[in-house]
Amino acid sequence: MRLASYQAVSGAGKAALVELFSQYDGLNGLAPQRDGRAPVLGKGTSSVLPRAIAYNAIPQVGLFGSDGYSGEETKVAAELRKIWSAPKLKVSVTAVRVPSIRSHALAAWLTLSHPLTLSRARAILAKTPGLILSREGDYPTPRSSGGKEEVYAGRLRRGAGPNELALWITSDNLLKGAALNSVQIAEELRRRGWLKPEAR
């Protein structure tokens, strides 16, 4: 299982939100350069997050461990292994802080125990309580899921592996966390015998 989590600034608390708005205010007069090229912002400064977050993405949520994974990445992998009682479950996670106000998003690649057609996977996901699956060709965004209790998924497609599915998930982190719901979706697939834990 591979996960890439895109986490809203509100997940880092009120001080991080205040800093985001302050950084945007400081860049209020930002405009293209005279030759039409986009401006170069540089590193910027931050007192709350590891780097300036306005117009940026920070691939660090929590402190880095000796293995190179951040605290959030380690936590998500550990939670999945614990929930499934699968201590050898192969999980790769990358957590990125993005300048959205609320709602986390998740790109997930799930290895299933056997082939599953996209139409069957779509039918299963469409019946999952609390999950709203976008129609083909459409997808949810953090802005569209903000303030809503449901989890939204879309971009369901084949992954690179023979039994792999990929999808995009978003939900309001202040109401329901994206990581929790990716676990719930994967748990439903596992309950049905379609998600295969891989030993390390």
In brief:
By secondary structure, the protein is an alpha/beta fold.
Tell me about this structure.
- By secondary structure, the protein is an alpha/beta fold.
- It has one domain: Dihydrodipicolinate Reductase, domain 2 (2-Layer Sandwich), CATH 3.30.360.10.
- It has five helices and six strands.
- The chain has a six-stranded mixed sheet, covered by helices on one side.
- Strand 4 (131-133), helix 4 and strand 5 (151-158) form a beta-alpha-beta unit.
CATH class annotation: Alpha Beta
**Numbering strands along the chain, what is their spatial order in the largest sheet?**
2-1-3-6-5-4
Strand content: 15-25%
User: How many DSSP helices?
Assistant: 5
* Whole-number mean pLDDT: 89
Report how far the terminal alpha carbons are from each other: 12 Å
Overall form = globular
Q: What's the CATH topology name?
A: Dihydrodipicolinate Reductase, domain 2
Biggest sheet, open or closed, and with what strands and sense?
Answer: 6 strands, mixed
CATH superfamily: Dihydrodipicolinate Reductase, domain 2
How is this fold's topology laid out?
Blueprint: E1 2-7, H1 14-26, H2 71-83, E2 92-97, E3 104-111, H3 118-126, E4 131-133, H4 142-145, E5 151-158, E6 164-171, H5 178-191
Parallel strand pairs: 1-2, 4-5
Antiparallel strand pairs: 1-3, 3-6, 5-6
